[in-house]
Amino acid sequence: MIQVTNITKIVTTGNGSLQILQPISFTVTEGQSVAIVGASGSGKSTLLGLLAGLDTVTEGSIKLDGASLETMDEEARAQIRGQKVGFIFQAFMLVPSLTALENVMLPAEINGSNNPKALAKDALEKVGLAHRASHYPNQLSGGEQQRVAIARAFITQPKILFADEPTGNLDADNSLKVEQLLFDLNQQAGTTLVLVTHDNELAQRCERQLIMSAGQLSEISAQAATERAS
Amino acid sequence: MGFSLAWRLFKHEARRGELSIILSAIILSVAAVLSLSLFSERLQGALNERSAEFIAADRQLSSRKPIEIEWLEQAKNQNLDVAEQVSTRSMVFANEQLQLVDLRAVSQTYPLKGSIKLSAEPFAIGESIVEVPSMHEAWLDSRLFQVLNINIGDEIEIGDAVFTATRVLSEIPDAGFSVFNTDPMVLINLDALAKTNVTGPGSRVNYKAYFVGTDDALDTFYSNIKSEFQREYHRWLSVDDDESPIGESVARAEQFFLLASLLAIVLACVAIGVAAQRYAQRHFDPVAIMKTLGASTSTIRKVYLYQIIFIALLGIVLGTVIGFLVQQVVVSALAGTVDVSLQVWYWRPLIIAIFTGSICALLFCLYPLLGLFAIPPLRVLRRDMASTLKTRGGQYATSGLAIFGLMYAYSQNFKVSAIMFISGLILVVLLLGATYGLIALGRVLGQGRMSAAQLAWARIKRRALDNSVQLISFALTLMLLLIVLVMRNDIVKQWQEQLPEGTANYFMINVTDAQKDDLAQHFAQNAVLSDDLYPVTRGRFAKINDIVLRSEVTKENEDSTNERRAGMGREANLTWGTELQQANEIVAGEWHDAWSHENSELGEGIYPVSVEVEAAKRMGIAMGDVLSFNIGSEIVNVQVTSLRQVNWQTMQPNFFFVLHPDAMARFTPTYITSFFLPEERKPELAQLLRPFPNVTLFDVDARINQIRSIIDQVSAAVEFILVLVLVAGALVLIAQVQASMDERQRELAILRTLGAQGGLIRRSVIYEFLIIGSVAGFMAALANEVSLYLLQSQVFQMTTSIHFEYWIVAPLTGAIVVGLLGAVSCRALLQLNTSTLLRKVL
């Protein structure tokens, strides 16, 4: 589903160029759930941005469901995202001036789906927020906002779901609820999940764990992962 | 998808008040431009109507030979109203006495604008009537009843015809405005003129045709007949050509309105620019989200272009309604003072307002929107990522061009637009320099323990570029307000100086040398304040440097539409003295008070003369020229030793030629003087003048009141425009402060969370705004001087001066107003509890 071959990312700063990612290669198969863990500043979010086609690699290639992102322009990548990708962010990233329902509808509308409203209602129902459909994001709690974001992520039935610290802004209670919901829906839909997190427990729930350190990525064995979690 | 999403966003954002700033900026610009230009258009219409009374029509054709019948026919066929007047100087005979008069024969339709005023007895207050003399009637100037010693009902002879003096003629609309050289007027019917036989060969006759109609019809008519005009005979006059004090006041007022409206447009642009920037910044996240979710650039473009169109449409509609209402309310409120009709509707202001609204909205939103479209989707992960659109140069160039384009489109006056634009540019450059200077200063000051002042400096320093943009917009707003305020003060002041209370409203001529002292004494006894007595002798202007003058030089003598030039002809009024009159200024050479025979460098028998500079120009007289006048049978030779600039707008005797007294020692002059008599003492006039039967009196009271009422109206209107622009400016300042508070919210929230006391935060914000406000005010005062100098000297033809008081007032006001607005916005923020504040911004 995702095939990463020798990608690097170099950015130019005021003090010269800086290599954020060393050559990285890995593959994620369809339906697999992968957690990318690592310290702050290790390059996790950069990698996620590249995988999702939000940013471009300096070298190497990324194939997303067969489509080579590095050969595509911004427009084509946007199209791929619209068709195949769902997102969940740490800061929820809901459009403040749209209601919960309209936020959920947004990807379906962009995608040109039929009857986005019905789909959105259905999705909100699944995350248990049908009764808050007409509320604006600032009228919802953090946990509720993230549940709306999850409903939005699943509405287009994406093949791949990228999640960036999905529980990073939530308290323990809400974290658990959101986590549960995310994995339940993921399982139901058979979506490929790539999530970036600090949270080892959350990472543990994924089938595979990759660790980023100083721009280098390595796979953690199941045993090592359990040790990390404990 | 674009449309429905845009509509939804628009609907929600409007409902939640998120569009209030950009919407109010558009509403403000449309309302200000509409109300200002609609009001000024209506006022100009009313003033033009008043001015039209001074030429008794919308257009006047003046000719020294009979006006072609075909032209008049053509005018009538083009639905123009037409009237005629034939005037000449002629003798009137009555009571065994002869008197030279200004004979005016008018057609049945005269006057087309204004009215003839008659009074019941000589020197009484006149009342309008709508008729002209019948075939046997003559309406006579008050002076004639006095000079010829006749009464109403007596017969007078003009040429070969006999008329009955049935009424006292108080005023006709296009009488002109000269006190000197005009003979008392007699009005008869045009059809009665032929029987007098006074317009035969050799007589100097002036023919006038008057036209009234729509501007288009008048212009078409003029362009049709123009080619047939003979330059030496025909002269076409419109209200704009009115060079009288009224004409100039109205013209200056019109320029002021134009300026104020231009400034309103610039204010509107600044407001929309600020609001659009803020609008775009608020939408960085939604755009990044939509891009992440797969929206194409074209979808996003559509969504936001539709949004801007919705906002602009709503703003234009609301702005139009509000602007119209404001203007309606103000016109109704001013109804007593200003003669403006509410019935007339002008399309131009509406079109300009809509044009301004849409152009401002689209052009000023364009660059912020381009920035918005270029927001990278990666912002969803990296919140600090801003637009990838790098250069601000494009934004400045677009904004600058848009402002200049609007100013030019509106004013059609390149000079005014360029002056305003260049002053603005100078200000921007000054401010950029100042901001960076401040930042450098802040670096020195901003060290040490954290205090409110330090927080303020730290913020100014950190947000250098944003602050410079903010500073520029504050300063521009303040500068525009200053320009309007100072221009209004200067204009109204100069108007008031022109006709101060107690301005002479009567003139007396033919006061003899023997009567001089008696007259002064008599007036003093009656508590009437009279002006100095000026000696006058009529001389025939014969030669310039021994070249005999041709008659062409003298033709202006007959031109009663331009009376200030009267006396320029062959018959000149000569006065003499060594004291320079008030409102006279030597512009070349030296005033001749120190001249004497002993130290004379002039030739034998040649005396110094001072000539009015414009008259000298027209007649080709230069410094050092020797002029010869025939006075009686004698010749007086004078050499031009100085040129004077004369303020003709003062109502006092002014002269083209002022000689040295020695030149005139052998002649017996008569004297001219003026005095002021309040309206309620008018009945005393006859008694006042009884001891001096030979003295001729001119009543200019009606004229002065006419001018004063127009000036009052225009001043009231100017006042209103000032208030309107000030309100617009205040709103723009509020919008700017709000926009910048918005950017400060996040920081305030963090400070608050970290436990900073409300007082510290509030003080730091107030300090910051005080610093920005005072710097903006000072810069505005500097730029204001530059633009005022250019405007007053190049456009308004006014005397210029430096306004030092505003160098203190502007920074103070800037600091107080901006500081206060900052404090109020900050207070509103600090009233929220910290978690609400955090949720609001994070």
Which helices and strands appear, and what pairs or packs with what?
The complex is a heterodimer of chains A (230) and B (842).
Chain A: E1 2-13, E2 16-28, E3 33-38, H1 44-51, E4 59-64, E5 67-68, H2 74-84, E6 85-89, H3 100-111, H4 116-126, H5 142-154, E7 160-164, H6 172-189, E8 192-197, H7 200-204, E9 208-213, E10 216-220, H8 222-229
Parallel strand pairs in A: 3-8, 3-9, 6-7, 7-8
Antiparallel strand pairs in A: 1-2, 1-4, 4-5, 9-10
Chain B: H1 2-15, H2 20-54, E1 59-63, H3 69-77, E2 81-94, E3 97-106, E4 116-119, E5 127-129, E6 137-141, H4 142-147, E7 155-158, E8 161-171, E9 185-189, H5 190-193, E10 205-212, H6 215-226, E11 234-238, H7 245-282, H8 284-292, H9 297-333, H10 347-373, H11 393-411, H12 414-445, H13 452-462, H14 464-498, E12 506-512, H15 515-525, E13 529-530, E14 534-544, E15 547-548, E16 571-576, E17 584-589, E18 606-612, H16 613-619, E19 626-631, E20 634-646, E21 657-659, E22 670-676, H17 685-689, E23 696-699, H18 701-753, H19 758-795, H20 804-830, H21 834-841
Parallel strand pairs in B: 3-9, 6-8, 16-21, 18-20
Antiparallel strand pairs in B: 1-10, 1-11, 2-3, 2-7, 2-10, 4-5, 4-8, 6-9, 7-8, 12-22, 12-23, 13-22, 14-15, 14-16, 14-19, 14-22, 17-20, 18-21, 19-20
